[in-house]
Amino acid sequence: MRMPKGLEHSQDGTHYTRNPSFACFHGNGMIGFIGTEGQRYSYSGPEAAVAEGIWKAASEPVPVAAWADLLERCETGPDAAVGIFEAFLERGLLLKVQTANLNEALGVAGGNTPGPRLRLLVCVTGAVAAVCIAEYLRELWSQLSAQIRVVLTRAATEMVNPAGLSYLLKAPCHVDMFEATGCDGRPPHIYLAEWASCVLVVPATANSIVRIASGTFNDLVSLTVGATPAQTPVIIAPSMNWRMFQSEVLQKSLQVCRENGYWIIEAGYGCEIGAQNAAEGFSVGALGCRHNVLPQLVKQILQWHRGGRARRAVPSIDGGSSVGG
Question: What pLDDT was estimated at residue 280?
């Protein structure tokens, strides 16, 4: 088998991995890729299986020697596989990185977990904004190239289907405090807290914030946040009715969270769902960033955290979305 162009003279330590600027989709026997700058590429027939195999393999940085072995063992033949791999390189679907600079190349900071990819644990609570969580997860995966696992409160399952999220993520979603599926038989809150290199509570209801601040760990989300190691950043994005947001209890709880080292994305402005008119419902309390902005906030917070910057409130970027109850 001939070596793909670009790999013949690669230095030791060179790896190739997915470009997080591309999202992948499947349908009708084909696989396609869409870039953040509007690029569109697709493969069908036998090529679709090869392209999917390359994309799956590139979920982690793969060294040159391992790529050569994978392409040689391709069922459609090594020559066809090499051609598609070269197209991936030419189109920018794969990134070339060195082992010494994997974190910087991927734009993420490792927390307490070794490895180049961000391990993002998303904790979803029962705010109305939870109905949009799939859009947030898609942007987090696409922009950060993160490994994502999801924890939901029981109230959140009234807003979003855990089975649907599991299908989207190709990973289990966790709800039950005593269900250890996918957790190596360990208590899920301990396993997930140690697995994560960043914990993101989005959207966070008043109830969940007060529980976290007071140490009332009586659901899987609050248990997991409570078990998270001190060196792992925890980011909380409140979303609730404006009266709840302005309540003294909630504001004191947010201050406790800040003092405990948690990052807070300040609530934005939005229209109360069910308000008779926009003027009546327009108020503070909305989730403080839209789905396409959240990954950039997370990336900035990780850079601050890695640099030892003091924890602080993070202002909302774009006014937020609708206010949840």
Answer: 54
